[in-house]
Design a protein that fits this description.
Oligomer: single chain
Radius of gyration: 21 Å
Order of helices and strands: HHEHEEEHHHHHHH
Largest sheet: 4 strands, mixed
Structural class: mainly alpha
Strand content: 5-15%
Number of strands: 4
Shape: globular
Strand order of the largest sheet: 1-2-4-3
Helix content: 55-70%
Distance between the termini: 14 Å
Amino acid sequence: MKWTRDFGLTMRMFLTSFLLLIVYLIFLGILAALGFPFGSLLVIAAVMAFLQYYFSDKLVLWSTRTRIVEEDEYPELHRMVESLAARAGLPKPKVGITASPVPNAFATGRSPKNAVVAVTDSIMRTLNREELEAVLAHEISHVKNRDMLTLTMASFVSMLAFLIMRNWIFISLFNNRDNNMGALILVYVVSIVVWLVSTLLTRALSRYREFAADRGSAILTENPRALISALTKISGRMDYIPAEKKQEIEGANAFFIIPALSGNTLMELFSTHPPLEKRVAALQELEAQMRGY
């Protein structure tokens, strides 16, 4: 089975961006009709989006305390990444190591040219070579699909709505006249709706991108069974990791191959990843297709 463009992912990225644009325009229209001074908020959000676009990979590396490692430090890891990138027709990404007892992996970067593929040191002790290669192939697939940039930029609308929600009380203190309070309350309610809709759209895209990366891993390694085994091991190991250790890297869950949740599991509707059972079932179906069953 050869690598083919995932039109399902492409269409979802386009549709998510289009729907978010509509939501964004409606949001701005309501604010304009109410006479709300949101120009400064737009400037702040635009600056944040610009910084997120150009420095998102560095922020992810910083938040997870990941360091870029050279080939002489981890030669086998570098060879696997280089080989998988060549199979995918990509330049070799930088390789990073995160010191954490949480077995996990992620990819970041706004383009294949500046991509980083990183793993925790514990995942290399948890998985065998085939399983680790399958995980790395999953992350290389994210780079190949260019879905990291789309997800980052799609969060712009949600970020703007959340910014207004978070600062609504502060804003209302300076607009406490009776004729303004009704409009401010409406703005707050609209912000909640916009944040909820945009969050649901980006979460739906995030879940599908994991299915697409799983499929890419199976194609690159021709071994979907190895990824099934890796996902099962990582997920099972999560139950034994102290909550405070998972909390240290929880902020980067959207990038991880398996989320590291420190508290109660979020509702599936808001989850950044599909359930493990569905991922395994999809890989088993793909394996059957590859074997001609």
